[in-house]
Amino acid sequence: MGVSQKWFRIVRGRFLRSSNKNIIILPRSNESEEAILSNEDFTFPTPISLVTEEDVAAIKIQAYFRGHLARRAYRALKSLVKLQALVRGVWVRKQSRIAMQCMHALVRLQVRVRARQLLGSFDKEHV
Description:
Blueprint: H1 2-17, E1 23-25, H2 33-38, E2 49-51, H3 53-126
Antiparallel strand pairs: 1-2
Helix pairs in contact: 1-3
């Protein structure tokens, strides 16, 4: 319970310390940047609406909650990467063990072939 409510206490604390400033939303311009820059009598657009304190509070709550979800997803992703590395490590060790067994079998086969070659040449010389 303590972990799930911790983010809310942080948000609430930030609201109590925040100042009561109004935020002005400017309208989006559909004109290209070149048209705005070339216009000599450029004036700043008038604000569409003033955002109320409740809107600011809602925006901040959403931002903090999205940050909380992003941090939780990042922690889950980190643990998933660690699990993936563990599984890959096990798989690579298994693969290298199989490769070493095959190489050992090839070496034993080569020793047998060389031994037969030597024994065969030794038998031909003494006959």
